[in-house]
């Protein structure tokens, strides 16, 4: 029989595929009423913040995964547009099935065979309907970067002409292991970002959130699936039936497994290919199947985002650009109120104030930095955001309540006691500055922040990886700052902390030597 004859069709696809027009079927109203269990990756440490946002905006209770950096919640499939507008989540996927206590066999062969057999038992129909509906929503919103449904001839033409515009940057850094690698599967280093460290280095971003214990998922691997590659040669039949392209991404944590993440992805991907008769493609894929393994917890899902949602604001990157989702978590921690004046005295490329001005337009935001290049990047990011707003509005966009200034953090041009909230990503002393300089910088910053902050009600949320230096500086500034809460986070693989400080009623002293 022809390879495409084995393509399993879920409801809603049969009629269109039989017609052979190569178009994605329009979702029916029943699909919008489907209950979908959504998984979301979030900045580690801010799981509770994300759960609060889901409850507030979607009215759904969330469950925080034992695997840090993930939450799960149930919503009607028709609520997917609102789900994509969440500010605290990085990537989204629909859960096919979750196993809270999966018993892996002791031997590698048996354990991998069980994963292969699992594919046939999973309830794929409803999750694939949700994936289909999600794709139709993305097409309505904007022109797809990687069209999901197009003719095989168009695909081949694009491949011949090179990488298409807006395609996944991962494709530029990967090559197939061999000419028979048609069923290749891929392991990404961390599902929070879904991006390679190579791409991250290009943008100079501190983006990738990684738990130290998840050491197995830090390297990008790619291998063929051996004998299972035969089914991957499926091509559209004479009738024009569309064969979807897919890849499997495995994220594994735990030291009691007899197999590697790559082996699990390879064998699971081979079984997926055999089950659906899809064609494997690591860079120009339609469906990304996720296999998340955390000790004995196994979650199978289908990705709903092509790239992380934290990339929404920044177009001009610096050496330490903060993720927008982490910036949102920091801002939410200080609970902004209407008419609050919020300052980021070390704004870098402006991730925090731009996120603040977007989500809390009823506050006034001031950003500044001593580096002229950083101020220029922040100004360019603000301009890009304004252009994006204007393109969405038929009339002139109202603008955003944000100003950017070049200044000296230790001598701010602001009146004493005029600022309600300070939110900032302080220098870690790695890519910018040094640990040695931080011993002078941190106490001077805390003193100047204390001077401009409103006594009694003012608060500050500060992110740093130089925890020892910060703790020492804070102990010397105890008369003007009180530590309220600490959130432990991972920033680019670095173990960092977000400190919530509250301003005391005591008047700030003049600047002096603290050490």
Automatic annotation (TrEMBL):
InterPro entries: RlmKL-like_Mtase, RlmKL-like_Mtase_CS, SAM-dependent_MTases_sf, THUMP_dom. It comes from the Eukaryota. Residues 190-304 form the THUMP domain. Residues 203-214 have a biased composition (Acidic residues). The keyword tRNA processing applies. GO terms for cellular component: cytoplasm; tRNA methyltransferase complex. Keywords: Cytoplasm, Methyltransferase, RNA-binding, Transferase, tRNA processing. GO terms for molecular function: RNA binding; tRNA (guanine) methyltransferase activity. Residues 167-177 have a biased composition (Basic and acidic residues). One of its GO terms (biological process) is tRNA methylation. Residues 1-27, 138-240 are annotated as: Disordered. Residues 179-191 have a biased composition (Polar residues). It is found in: Cytoplasm. Belongs to the methyltransferase superfamily. This is THUM3 protein. It comes from Tricholaema leucomelas (pied barbet).
């Amino acid at each position: 029989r022809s390879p495409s004859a084995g393509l399993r069709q879920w409801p809603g696809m049969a009629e269109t595929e039989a017609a052979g027009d190569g178009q994605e079927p329009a979702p029916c109203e029943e699909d919008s009423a489907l209950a979908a269990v959504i998984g979301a990756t979030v900045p580690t440490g801010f799981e509770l913040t994300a759960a609060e946002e889901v409850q507030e905006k979607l009215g759904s209770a969330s469950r925080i995964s034992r695997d840090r950096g993930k939450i799960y919640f149930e919503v009607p499939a028709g609520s997917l547009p609102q789900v994509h507008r969440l500010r605290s989540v990085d990537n989204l996927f629909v859960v096919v099935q979750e196993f809270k206590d999966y018993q892996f066999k002791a031997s590698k062969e048996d354990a991998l065979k069980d994963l292969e057999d699992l594919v046939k038992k999973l309830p794929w129909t409803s999750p694939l309907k949700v994936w289909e509906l999600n794709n139709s929503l993305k097409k309505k919103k904007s022109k797809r970067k990687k069209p999901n449904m197009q003719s095989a001839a168009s695909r081949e033409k694009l491949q011949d002409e090179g990488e298409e515009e807006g395609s996944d940057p991962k494709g530029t850094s990967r090559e197939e292991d061999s000419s028979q690698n048609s069923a290749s599967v891929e392991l990404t280093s961390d599902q929070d970002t879904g991006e390679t460290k190579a791409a991250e280095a290009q943008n100079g971003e501190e983006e990738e959130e990684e738990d130290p214990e998840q050491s197995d998922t830090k390297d990008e691997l790619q291998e063929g699936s051996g004998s299972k590659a035969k089914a991957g040669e499926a091509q559209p039949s004479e009738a024009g039936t569309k064969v979807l392209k897919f890849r499997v991404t495995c994220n594994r944590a735990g030291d009691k497994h007899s197999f590697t993440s790559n082996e699990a992805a390879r064998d699971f991907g081979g079984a997926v290919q055999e089950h659906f008769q899809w064609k494997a493609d690591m860079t120009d894929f339609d469906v990304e199947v996720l296999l998340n393994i955390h000790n004995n917890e196994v979650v199978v899902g289908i990705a709903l985002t092509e790239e992380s949602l934290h990339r929404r604001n920044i177009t001009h990157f610096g050496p330490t650009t903060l993720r927008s989702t982490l910036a949102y978590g920091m801002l939410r921690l200080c609970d902004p109120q209407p008419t609050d004046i919020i300052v980021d005295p070390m704004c870098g490329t402006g991730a925090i104030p731009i996120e603040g001005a977007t989500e809390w337009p009823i506050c006034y935001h001031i950003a500044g930095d001593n580096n002229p290049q950083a101020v220029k990047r922040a100004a360019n990011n603000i301009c890009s955001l304004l252009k994006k707003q204007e393109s969405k509005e038929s009339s002139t966009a109202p603008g955003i309540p944000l100003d950017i200034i070049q200044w000296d953090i230790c001598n701010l041009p602001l009146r004493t006691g005029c600022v309600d909230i300070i939110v900032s990503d302080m220098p870690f002393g790695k890519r910018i500055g040094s640990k040695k300089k931080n011993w002078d910088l941190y106490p001077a910053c805390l003193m100047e922040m204390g001077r401009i902050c409103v006594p009694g009600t003012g608060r500050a949320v500060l992110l740093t990886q130089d925890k020892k230096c910060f703790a020492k500086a804070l102990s010397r500034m105890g008369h003007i700052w009180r530590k309220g809460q600490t959130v432990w986070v991972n920033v680019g693989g670095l173990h960092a902390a977000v400190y919530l400080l509250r301003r005391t009623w005591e008047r700030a002293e003049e600047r002096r030597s603290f050490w």
